[in-house]
Amino acid sequence: MKKIAILTRDCAGVNAAIRSIVRTAYEFKLEVLGVLREYNGLIDNQFIILNRRSVSGIINIGGTILKTARSKRFFIESEQKKAVQNIKDNNIDGLIVIGGDGSMRGAHVLATKYNIPVVGIPATIDNDVSGVDLTIGADTAVNVALDALDKIRDTATSLERIFVVEVMGRECGYIALNVALAGGCEEVLIPEKDFDIDTMCEEIKTGSSQGKESWIIIVAEGKAKGHDIANIITDKTNLETRVVVLGHIQRGGHPTSVDRVMAARLGNYAVNVLRDGLSDHCVSLKDGRLVTIPLDVAVQPKKIDIDTYYKLIKILT
Ligand code: F6P
Fold it and tell me: Which of 142, 107, 133, 106 is nearest to 303 (CA)?
């Protein structure tokens, strides 16, 4: 193996992973190319040379220095073939894909359909890669959202108000559950669980009549719109509500130490297993140990232990 390439999505910790890959590759005298704009760059032959120097000063920076895209084109077979031709024309012997379940799906296609050696590094704020305890970026996202929530609580308590805070997660309630538990919130609505809004409004009315002053309700974007939930609460309880949609601030920011250390370890490990001939797997940490997981497992829908979170939130608020 002489030359590898890196392709990325964006979240905090991705740059730290790129740095780890490039500097590990240098130890093995491997050349490294960065693919610009995720799978679109692979299709359009957009590569840059990465060396030890080009990855200095990025360990603490969010996003990805390689830019990214949500490639719809890579679903089309003729576009996939262009990507594969570019991999061959650039003499790339192996590819490391850093991203979430969509990126892992693309990696699985390259490995299984076109026999390209590919190793994935799970990185997404959603933490929705199956078989993987924690993806790069998820810890930062929860901490960014929690920081915002702590500030919202100051006003919620002072003004005795109900706040509905919408967090990211179209299909996965990971951020919502963790922010709700770590932020001491009263309710959390996530895509994976049915929710009875009438019961919640009754509880708010009862609590209010007994002197409870404020509520913070977390809504994952994939479950409902924060504004819709707030309107229903106001209609049914006659209490004032405010809404905060945290949006993309959750995907940016300086990576936490958890994300940086994980990125350093997984980047290094990915180069090692790719050199050893592994393909169609992603790398991860399980109980602190480095492991590999088949990509066909990683792309399955992830199940999280919802009940434990809900029980604790109910007991602790
Ligand atoms: O998958 C990561 C994520 O941030 C989700 O939580 C969110 O639903 C989605 O991406 C937003 O996508 P986009 O940046 O394309 O609007």
Answer: 133
CA of 89 to the centre of ligand 1 (A): 32
Between the CA of 250 and the centroid of ligand 1 the distance, in Å, is: 10
- Two tokens, residue 307: 């009940």
Nearest atom in ligand 1 to 175's CA: 6
Residue 251 in contact with ligand 1 by CB distance below 6 A: yes
> Distance, CA 295 to ligand 1 centroid (Å)?
21
Q: Which of 125, 170, 175 to mutate to test the pocket of ligand 1 (most atoms within 8 A of CB)?
A: 170
As a whole number of angstroms, the distance between CA 119 and CA 172 comes to: 24
Quick one: DSSP state of residue 301? P
Q: Checking phi first, is residue 277 left (phi over 0); if not, alpha (psi -120 to 50) or beta? A: left
Q: Is the Cα dihedral 25, 26, 31, 32 positive or negative?
A: positive
Query: How do residues 193-248 score in pLDDT, each as one tens digit?
Result: 999 999 999 999 999 999 998 999 999 999 999 999 999 999 999 999 999 999 99
Which SS3 state, helix, strand or coil, does residue 172 take? coil
| Confidence at residue 159, expressed as pLDDT on a 0 to 100 scale | 86
Element containing residue 186 per DSSP (H, E): none
User: What are the residue ranges in the chain where pLDDT is below 50?
Assistant: none
Model pTM above 0.70: yes
Closest CA to 312 of 124, 182, 153: 182
Which residues are annotated as catalytic?
A: 126
CA of 60 to the centre of ligand 1 (A): 21
Closest CA to 13 of 304, 265, 185: 265
Return phi, psi of residue 48, to 5°.
-130, 155
Q: Which atom of ligand 1 is nearest to the CA of 128?
A: 1
Please answer whether residues 267 and 17 qualify as being in contact, where contact means their C-beta atoms are separated by less than 8 angstroms: yes
- CB 126 less than 6 A from any atom of ligand 1: yes
Indicate whether residue 92 lines ligand 1 (CB < 6 A): no
- Tell me phi and psi for residue 9, to 5 degrees: -95, -175
